Structure formats: structure tokens, C-alpha cells
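Note to self: the last two entries modelled the partners one at a time, which told us nothing about the interface. This time every component goes in together.
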Amino acid sequence: MANVFGKKWEGLALFSYEGWLKKEYRISEALLDLAREVEEEIRPLFSTIETTAKVNHARVLHAFLEEGVADYHFNATTGYGYGDLGRTTLEHLYSRVFGAEAALVRTAITSGSQALALCFFGVLRPGDELLILGEMYPTLQSIAGLKGAAPGSLKEWGVSCRQAGLDSDPAEVLRPNTRAVFLQRAAGYSHGSSLGIPVMAELMARFKRANPGLVFIVDNCYGEFVEMLEPTHVEADLVAGSLIKNPGGGLAPAGGYVVGKRALVEQVAARLTAPGLGAQLGPDPGGYRLLFQGLYLAPLMVAEALKTAVFAARLFERLGFTVFPPYQASRTDIVQAIDLGSPQRLLAFCRGLQRVSPVDSRVVPEPAYLPGYGGEVLMAAGTFVQGASLELSADAPWEPPYTAFLQGGLSYFYGQIGVLGAAQELLSAGLLPVSLS
Ligand SMILES: *Cc1c(COP(=O)(O)O)cnc(C)c1O
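The predicted structure of the combined assembly is written out below.
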């Protein structure tokens, strides 16, 4: 295209994405060639992601229409927050979207870990047992008392926690005092498969045949809107997650949610506020618009994050790394694990990703202690909302095999630049296992 913008812009590839990447982002020609090939390879997978996203858009919008969401629902409330219409409408909306009887959706719930702690302490009583099937996220292990000696853990309260495999036979693992069963939908910090809804449904049905009174508590972090159904659409009794992950749609400034059976959600609400007070209190002085709008956008944002994850999986596989899940796998969460294999490579990966983040691009990530994780963690998180991981980010326990857990990307195109930034940093530092030419 002729340069019509005069001398100042000469040489700047204003109309070319690759021109920008080459000139302003310093992505090498060889890496761009590879990225082009990868895009061709992964494009067919995008239609599956979009099919799911369309169904989730339809479900979310329908809930807005059924609840008659109006602009006065966005207003802030103060004090006790009695009769807060915004809060109740938002919670009805979540119930509908998740196919649940009741919901708690609060910025006063700081994180996914806190939402799950509320579920555990709401349901379990001294002498009860919590059976953990499969993986449990590190912060939740601290809550359970399986790791370290966090004051106030379930263990300290006389609730025992036991871990068993996902393929366990209910007749063998259930005890008379097993009150609740915990399941984690995402793979978390492991290379175990995440639990898709059909598999989860079958597992829960099998255990409930053995004991219909069991309460299934599902950690839904990173799983929301990845499939067409949520755990509450099948047998789950209580499901919890974080609003700075999937359901906050990248807009929620803070918060967590719990959805599930009404009587159980009431027990959780009694832990959140106080026994006898429950869900009827709790103002939000900041107002609710971002929580409504975030939920509205969540199916799209999750689809963009999934496309970013697929691109990263294939690109890093082509660059000689072991990735999990592989790019063609059907996904049930938004996390992409990339085994970098050495501290130098992990540092370079996170440095490269951070450098092309919209916020804190001048920060250089270093491993640091993080509460609840039981060790040092390295993070790249150039996000608008602190620690938000539906925004493009990576975190990595600072230990072999030096795996980066990459997730998010509110736009596939920004996500792609982030992934290429990370790859370029490895290339520039001479740390790639394959030679690009
Ligand atoms: C993020 C996450 C949590 C909770 O983390 P918070 O930082 O407390 O929100 C729990 N389980 C899984 C699988 C997660 O990914």
C-alpha cells in the first residue's frame, strides 16, 4: 500500500500485523513463519470452541431476559445491604445460568479458595469426613490441613480429609462418616486430565447410588463456560469459583461465587455472614455493573482464552516442548501447561510474556512466596485486575519440571502476541530446544 501518511510513518508497516510484530515487537521472521503454520493447523479446532461459546451465549442472555435485568440493578448499596435488588438479581441470574437452586455472588468473597472454604465449613461438622477424589489445588490443601499447619484448617476443627483416586470404588472408599466428596474440574497444577462434565456426572451418580446423602462439592475454577454445561446441571450439590477467573468475564474487579442446592447454599451463607443472618445481608458499595457485564461477556472471553491456549500448545510443541493438554485435545478448562524444563527457560518465558502485557510491562517477574501455595511461585501477570487469570497470565511453582501454567487472554489476538513474546524471549536467549531457520 502506498504510504499516504508522509515521512514520519515511512517504513512502519501500519497496515500489516506481521509488520508490527516484526518491527515493534521484535518477533523474528522464523518465529512468525512458524506462527503462520500453527494458525493453519489449529483453525479447524476453533469451530468447536465457537459452537460451545454460542450455546453459552444463548444461555447467559436468556437468563438476563428472564430476570429482567435493568440499569437500577447496578446501583451500589451501603450498610447492611438489606433488600439489595442488585445483589438478589445477580444471584438469581447466576442460579439460572448454572442451573442451580440458589447462588451467592459477592465481592466480599475474596477468591476461589475462600468460596470453597465457605462450602467446606458450611457443610462439614466435627467428626465428618471429606473425601477428595483426584486432585486438590494447593491452597485448598492448606484449608483442609493436608499441607502445612494453617490455623483454622478443617483438620483443626476435627474434620478429617482423605484422598483417593478418581476411579475409586464407592463401596471401598466411602466410610460411615463421609459427609462430602470434593472434585476439582480443572487439572490445576498437575498433568492429570481435567474432569469433563460427562465424566463428572457419571462419577457422581455412581457415588450417590452408594450413598444418596453425599454432598458433592466441586471446585469449578477455570472450568466455567468451557463446556455447554456446568457441574450443577448434573449431580453437583455445591459448586464454587472465582470472579477474577472465567465467570467475571475479565471485568469483575474482585469476588467469588457459590451455586447449588438451596439448603446447602443457606449453610454456606451462614458461614459468610453469620448464623441466623445468612444471604440477606451484604452490601456492595462499589455497585454491580461490572459483575453483570462480566458474566454477559464471559462466554466470549472464555472462547478467546481457549483459542489462545490452543495456539500456545501447538506453537510450543513445535518449538520442542512437552505441553499438556496437547493442542487437539478436547478441553474442559482454560489452562495450558508447558514444561519448560529449566529455571532459565521458565524465567525467560515469564519475562517475555510480561514484557508484552498491557499493565506492568516493565516489571521483571521473579519467584516469590505466595500465601497458601507452600513454596515459591513465579508469575507473569500484567493484568488490569490484580492476579486476574482470565486475563493472559502464567504461573509456575518454582520447582522441576519448571512448568508454566498459561491461561487467559481476553482477546485471542492479544493472547497470540503474548505467546509469541514469550517464545521470542526464549529464542533470543538461545534457550529453545530446536533450531528455527
Ligand atoms: C485458581 C484456582 C483455585 C482458587 O484460587 P484463588 O486464587 O483462591 O481464586 C482453586 N482451584 C483451582 C483448580 C484453581 O485453578
